[in-house]
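Q: I'm building a small set of examples for a reading group on sequence design. Run inverse folding on the following structure and report the sequence directly after it, with nothing in between.
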């Protein structure tokens, strides 16, 4: 590997990084801890909405999306009508 020992990792043009089993175990341990703590937080600390609140929120989002779609369609219709009138001059 270009004169470097086999226990280093070359990344781009940076200095070689040592590869060791201990460093890998520490990283894997941190990842495992993160996953366990995330699961614990999601199951014990997060407040999930009730089914009725979820339904009302979904309906609110659908109505707001429909209103936005109608506004965009109306703007498109008006702009198309104006541009058609200009081009027919």
């Amino acid at each position: 590997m270009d004169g470097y020992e086999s226990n280093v990792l070359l990344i781009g043009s940076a200095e070689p990084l040592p590869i060791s089993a201990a460093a890998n175990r520490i990283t894997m341990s941190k990842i495992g801890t993160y996953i366990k703590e995330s699961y614990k937080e999601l199951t014990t600390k997060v407040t999930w909405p009730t089914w009725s609140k979820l339904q009302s929120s979904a309906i609110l989002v659908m109505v707001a999306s429909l209103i936005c779609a109608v506004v965009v369609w109306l703007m498109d219709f008006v702009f198309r009508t104006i541009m058609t009138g200009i081009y027919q001059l």
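The longest helix spans residues 51-87.
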